[in-house]
Amino acid sequence: MKQITLLLFSLLLFSCAEKKTSEKMVSVTIEPQRYFAEKIAGDKYTINCVVPAGQSPETYDPTPQQMIKVGQSVAYLKIGYIGFETAWMDNIVKNNPNLKVFDLSEGIAVIDNPDAEMHEEHDHEGEEHGHDHGHKHTGIDPHTWSSVAGAKAVAWNTLQAFIALDKENTKFYFDNYNALLAEIEKTEATINQLLEGLSNRTFIIYHPALSYFAAEYQLTQLCIEMDGKEPSPAQLKELVDTARANNTRVVFIQQEFDQKNAELIARETGCKLVRINPLSYNWHEEMILIAQSLKDAEAN
C-alpha cells in the first residue's frame, strides 16, 4: 500500500509541478500541532495538517493529494516518534530535498514505551485484523503534547522554527508566542486548581495517550491496550482487579479506538465512561476536560 501511494505521489507531484501554490505553507502531523503553529504563525503561513481529525497518527497512511501538499510546503514540523512519522518521514525528505524539517520534541524529557517495539499491528475499530501498515515503533511514547510542560516545549520549538524560516518577522512570532504561552499558563492554573487535593489519582484509558499528563500530575494511567492489541480475558480480569483495588472512577475512551472493552470494564468497576480526544485541535479545552473529568468522578 505504501509503495503504491509513493508511486502515485511521484506521478501527481510531477504533473502538478506547474501548479505549485504561491502561498507559504508549513505542514504538521497532528491537529494539536496545527493549533500551536497557527497561534504563532498568524497570517504569515498556512498550516497544513496531514493526519485528518478522527484518524490515528499511529497507523495513518496519507493520500497522494496530502503528499502533494507536503511537497508544496516550505517546512515540516514533526511531533517526533509517532507512527506516521517513523513510517513516512524518510520518504517525505527523499522526495522533497528542499523541505526544511523541524523536530518539535527537542528538549522534552521523553517517556520510554518498552512495549512499543512489540506493536506489529493495531486492532483498531474499522481496520482489518492483520493489516500491515508498515509503521515502525521507536520505544518512545510520542504523546509529548499531552502535558503542560510538553505543550510549552512544543510551542517554544514551533517559535524557533518560524524564526528560522522568516527572521524578518521575529518580533511578530515572539509576540504571538507570548500570547500562546499566557494561554498555556492559564490552562495550567485551571488544571492545578481542579486536581488540587484529588485523592483518587488512577484512571483507565484504552491507548496510553496521557502518559506525560499522568507523570506531570502524579497520576496512575492503566491501559486497556496490551502490546498494541486487544487484551486477553486474563489481562482484562487483571485490569479490572487493579482498577477495583485503586478505587478507579474514570475510563477514558477515544474515537480512534474500539470501545467495547472500555464499556465492559466500566460496567465491572462502576467507572464513569468519559470521551476525550487528545488529538483535538483545541488543546487547552481538551486538557481542562480531562482534569475536570477526574475531579467530577471523585465527587460522585
Key terms:
Rossmann fold; 45% helix; 2 domains; 10 helices; 300 residues
Give an overview of the whole structure.
By secondary structure, the chain is α/β, with parallel strands linked by helices. It is 45% helix and 11% strand. The chain has helices spanning 2-15, 31-41, 64-71, 83-95, 148-165, 170-195, 211-216, 233-245, 260-269, 283-299, and strands spanning 25-28, 46-49, 75-78, 100-103, 202-205, 220-223, 250-254, 272-276. The strands form two sheets. Strands 2-1-3-4 form a four-stranded parallel β-sheet, covered by helices on one side. The protein has a four-stranded parallel β-sheet with strand order 6-5-7-8, sandwiched between helices. Helix 2 (31-41) links the parallel strand 1 (25-28) and strand 2. The longest helix is centred in the middle third of the chain and has 26 residues, at 170-195. The termini are far apart.
In short:
The chain is of the alpha/beta class and 300 residues long.
